[in-house]
Specification:
The complex is a heterodimer of chains A (426) and B (599). With 426 residues, chain A is an all-alpha fold. Helix content of chain A is 66%, strand content 0%. Chain A is extended and about 85 Å long. With 599 residues, chain B is mainly α. In chain B, 49% of the residues lie in helices and 3% in strands. Chain B has a three-stranded antiparallel beta sheet. The longest helix of chain B has 25 residues. Classes of the chains: A mainly alpha (426), B mainly alpha (599). Chains A and B meet through helix 1, helix 3, helix 4, helix 5 and helix 6 of A and strand 3, helix 15 and helix 16 of B.
């Protein structure tokens, strides 16, 4: 059909999807690519033709208009810009198509008068203008349809993109094709969810066949995709959600465990969090839960689940566990995000109370605080913190004040109510 | 027919490993040897989803083979002749006198054909494909006749009309028949005997010969605004003359040549054609700086009184002489650049009157402003403010017009290769559709808005849409005074950079870019104003200003002095004291004084 030799050249990825990269490890995360815009396109060259001058200045005008959100003006210039495609200078052809595509959809996204019809129109044109960007445009198109609530159409787009083949070219784009598959399955899940909530009483009726079909289609793909290393958070959640409804716990657990512990996957704290939550939903033993959280603690000491972890540790009778809990809570409080969190401080208080029963507990606390004693007072126990806590949350102030002496016994701190009341009086 | 779709798919069949694919009625691929249907379908592109578009291309593909571009056989110079005729007709429609086409351009074109041995010659340029045979008798007589006095003939007649006789022999031929000889010649000598730019150079020569009031910058502006066909001029060729394949290299235009380049080409052409002396450009001719300067003064909203000073200056420098403005192979072998020269004259006059050293002109403006009856006195500051806003606006508009300009033709020049042709058509179609979509969205058609042709860039006066109030009637009383019964400028200093001529070959880059930061801002601004007006580079205009200064101040005595002076001036400049500038310019200033005193 097309003059393929022109279209096919040394293949270059258009863009790096760092979020969804299917194979991050092999890329080494070094080639963070910017969209492929040749800088020479924006520079005046001494032997520039009038045509190139026109397109260069037109591009500058469009960029200017877009930057200032003058969408009407941008659209006006955009009407003059497509002649760029007819550039006889072949090496730039691919790049020009991409440029035209990206600017067009950007303007259509924002222009007040643009319609879905325009958008579909441009997407179809650009899709068939070159095979290099076909899959990218399909994906973009379906996202846009989703934004307008047309999930079915979006799915149709992705399905047709999935069946798109173009000899060597589709092989070269297999990563992108995988992404398309993944999103198609995700949309299957979305549709599945809709159906599930629309007839919520009886899932396993025969008239719910459509819903089960969606499940089958989605699970088939997702199962394949989740095998390849990458960050698949939203995909895995939807897959687990479906598996749970169909009571396939074995598979779900296997998938989650694999996601969390397979060394081929990039380290992903969410994987452990998902596993933990799944186990908790299904009443797994505390030992199992703690095992998951222990790994998570190493990855993200400030994770919100650390509160759960210390609570779990507090529940055990083991003395060592209580000491561990202290370490975890102190780690959490190293981060400013937990500084004014009531629950964490309360938990710390509970831990200290439990510790006080043990022998030699003061030494242990000192040991834990040894590294922190230089900067914790400044982080938690200044007079400013005292006045602020008193004002915003007196209860927190009480808890903190009671812990102050325990944590920093040899230091004189200004975390008192005095200065505040004094200050108010004078 | 299936093969067109399956050719790109070379996977072996999973059942029998054969590579022989066909397409079922449902557009699925099937293996022809074992009838195994696979999942692959014909490209989605061809299904009905894309409305209309893809059907179009297939129908063209089918249809075109049968009635493949079968036009007349034609030669490249015929094509150019048509284009030249269209350009001349456009100029006639714009008001150029009819003699221009028949009495000047046509003989010039014939002379060109003869001199470049394309026609009217017994010794034609060698062409591998085609030999001119029966032309000889016809062309000899034409060549004999005095070219410039040839009687009016129809520009449409085809002098080398041999093509018809050979039409039967080359029935499957399309496109011009001798294009390859042009291109091989081009490769050999880096210069084709014919090019689109040559048409402009020829027209420019013909305009100068017939002493029309159109300067080169006017011509280029008309071309730029589309009033004279140039970009995609081949579209207007008759239906039977198909422009195909390599013709594109000669006929496709992707830029409008600059003033400098066309002038150079015209200069080369004038020597190549060995033209005799041109009709004299006297001071009654509109091309002569005396009248041309009037037009530029009007356009830049300068007072009419300034014209008197421009004329005085010209007289003083001996530049009013017509021989200086008339091309003559002996006395004036360089084709004058009337427009640039006139602009330079105006700039030099302004320098004499106002100093333009970033100091004098503002002091003069202050003096004028302080006088009680300054109502109709010309104030440079006021003029500068008016002009500056108008200039900014115009520059902005020009930039927008450049951005909006559409270069690509409706009628494409297709390559002979069918694959490349299809790709081109597809690109064209997509570009058109995207354009249509955005035209609809923005409800504004692409391309530059049509403007009616005008000799003026700006419009001054009270009417609506003007760039500002007119200052033409203003008096120069503030800057000139009566001394010994003679009007004398009150400014007595004149500065100028070193006037020593340098060898163009040794320093090819212009000095302007080096000099520009050290020149007074008001002078640079004036250069920019006029270079915008004429659409030439400021450096070209600067060179011309230097040339005029050399004439006015006299190169012979000042050559050494000025080069020395240039040094002192620049060193004084680094100390950045305007006073020293004035002092160092004293020599120049004295000569300036003598100019005005003696006149």
């Amino acid at each position: 059909m097309d003059d393929l030799d022109r279209e096919l050249g040394p293949y270059e990825p258009v863009e790096d999807f760092s979020d969804f990269s299917v194979d991050n490890s092999s890329k080494g995360g070094t080639n963070v690519k910017h969209p492929n815009v040749n800088p020479t396109m924006c520079l005046e060259t001494p032997r520039e033709t009038g045509f190139h001058r026109s397109t260069r200045i037109c591009l500058e005008q469009i960029r200017e208009a877009i930057l200032h959100h003058r969408w009407q003006e941008a659209a006006e210039y955009m009407a003059c810009y497509p002649q760029l495609l007819e550039d006889t200078c072949l090496p730039l052809a691919q790049q020009n198509k991409e440029l035209l595509w990206r600017i067009s959809i950007n303007i259509l996204h924002h222009h007040p008068n643009s319609t879905m019809e325009d958008y579909n129109n441009i997407c179809e044109r650009m899709k068939h203008s070159g095979i290099r960007h076909h899959l990218m445009i399909c994906l973009e198109h379906s996202f846009h349809l989703l934004l307008h609530g047309q999930a079915e159409d979006a799915k149709w787009q992705l399905s047709s993109a999935e069946s798109w083949r173009h000899g060597k070219e589709s092989a070269a784009q297999h990563q992108r094709a995988k992404l398309i598959q993944a999103y198609r399955s995700l949309l299957d899940y979305v549709i599945w969810c809709d159906k599930r909530f629309s007839n919520s009483n009886n899932y396993f009726d025969s008239d719910n066949q459509g819903m089960h079909n969606n499940f089958r289609q989605a699970s088939l793909n997702l199962k394949e995709i989740l095998k390849s290393p990458g960050v698949w958070d939203s995909f895995i959640l939807s897959y687990i959600d479906m598996l749970e409804l169909y009571d396939d716990h074995e598979e779900a657990l296997k998938i989650l465990n694999d996601y969390a512990y397979n060394n081929n996957f990039p380290p992903n704290p969410n994987a452990h969090a998902y596993l933990y939550r799944y186990l908790k939903r299904h009443d797994a033993s505390e030992k199992n839960l703690m095992r998951v959280l222990k790994v998570l603690h190493i990855l993200v000491p400030s994770h919100e689940l650390m509160l759960d972890y210390s609570t779990l540790l507090l529940n055990s009778e083991n003395e060592a566990d209580i000491q561990k809990a202290l370490g975890i809570i102190l780690d959490m409080l190293d981060f400013t995000c937990w500084r004014t969190n009531m629950d964490v401080w309360k938990c710390l208080k509970a831990v200290i109370q439990r510790l006080e029963i043990q022998e030699d507990w003061e030494n242990f606390v000192c040991e834990k605080m040894a590294l922190r004693k230089d900067w914790w007072p400044a982080l938690h126990f200044t007079s400013f913190h005292a006045s602020k806590d008193l004002e915003e949350n007196p209860e927190l102030w009480k808890v903190k004040a009671s812990l102050e002496k325990v944590l920093c016994p040899k230091q004189t701190l200004k975390y008192t109510a005095d200065c505040v009341t004094n200050g108010k009086r004078t | 027919m299936d093969d067109e779709y399956t050719a790109g798919y070379r996977e072996p069949c999973s059942q029998c490993s054969a590579v022989d694919w066909g397409i079922t009625d449902e557009c699925h691929f099937y293996c022809r040897s074992c009838h195994n249907v696979i999942e692959r379908t014909r490209d989605v592109e061809d299904t009905g989803f894309v409305q209309g578009g893809s059907n179009k291309i297939s129908s063209i593909r089918k249809g075109s083979k049968k009635k493949l571009e079968r036009g007349h056989i034609w030669m490249v110079c015929e094509g150019f002749q048509f284009i030249l005729r269209n350009q001349a007709n456009a100029l006639l429609r714009l008001g150029v006198s009819p003699q221009f086409k028949d009495d000047v351009l046509c003989p010039l074109w014939r002379l060109f054909l003869q001199r470049s041995r394309l026609a009217y010659t017994s010794n034609p340029v060698k062409s591998s494909k085609f030999r001119v045979q029966d032309v000889n008798s016809y062309s000899d007589s034409a060549a004999e006749s005095s070219i410039m006095s040839a009687s009016a003939t129809d520009g449409e007649s085809n002098p080398p009309s041999v093509a018809d006789s050979n039409a039967e022999n080359a029935s499957d031929y399309s496109g011009s028949m001798d294009v390859s000889s042009y291109l091989s010649a081009r490769l050999r000598r880096k210069r084709s005997p014919l090019s689109m730019m040559k048409t402009l150079a020829l027209i420019h020569l013909a305009l100068v010969w017939s002493r029309e009031a159109l300067t080169l910058s006017d011509l280029l502006r008309l071309v730029n605004e589309g009033h004279v066909p140039y970009v995609n001029a081949y579209e207007q060729l008759p239906e039977e003359m198909k422009v195909v394949g390599k013709d594109a290299l000669l006929f496709r235009v992707e830029s409008i040549p600059s003033h400098r380049v066309v002038h150079k080409e015209a200069q080369a052409l004038v020597l190549f054609l060995q033209l005799p002396a041109f009709p004299p450009v006297t001071c009654e001719t509109l091309l002569h700086p005396e009248l041309l300067s009037l037009r530029y003064l009007t356009d830049t909203n300068l007072p009419d009184e300034l014209h008197l000073w421009v004329c005085r200056l010209m007289e003083q420098a001996g530049m009013a002489d017509q021989t200086l403005h008339t091309f003559d192979p002996h006395s004036c072998p360089v084709l004058p650049r009337y427009d640039v020269q006139t602009a330079a004259l105006i700039i030099v006059t302004m320098k004499f009157l106002f100093g333009l050293d970033d100091q004098t002109e503002w002091n003069l403006s202050n003096e004028v402003g302080n006088q009680s009856d300054s109502g109709d006195m010309f104030n440079l500051r006021r003029w500068y403010r008016l002009m500056q806003t108008a200039l900014m606006r115009a520059q902005q508009r020009r930039r927008q017009d450049i951005a909006r300009k559409q270069w690509k033709a409706k009628k494409l020049i297709f390559p002979k290769n069918n694959g490349a042709k299809r790709t081109m058509m597809k690109k064209k179609r997509i570009a058109e559709q995207v354009q249509l979509c955005f035209e609809k969205l923005s409800s504004r058609p692409a391309g530059v808005q049509e403007v009616s042709p005008s000799s003026f860039r700006f419009c001054w006066g009270d009417e609506e849409g003007s760039d500002g109030p007119s200052l033409h009637h203003m008096k120069l009383d503030g800057v000139v005074s009566q001394k010994h019964n003679l009007l004398t400028p009150s400014n007595s200093t004149y500065w100028h950079p070193g006037l020593k001529k340098c060898d163009r070959r040794r320093c090819p880059s212009s000095h302007y870019s080096d000099m520009e930061p050290t020149l007074p801002r008001s002078f640079v601004w004036l250069l920019q104003l006029f270079s915008f007006l004429l659409d030439v580079k400021p450096s070209d205009l600067y060179e011309e200003v230097l040339k005029v200064e050399r004439q006015v101040i006299g190169t012979k005595t000042h050559c050494d002095v000025s080069s020395r002076k240039k040094k002192t001036r620049t060193s004084a400049r680094t100390k950045s004291s305007p006073r020293t500038l004035e002092r160092t310019c004293l020599t120049g200033g004295e000569s300036g004084k003598t100019v005005s005193d003696s006149s």
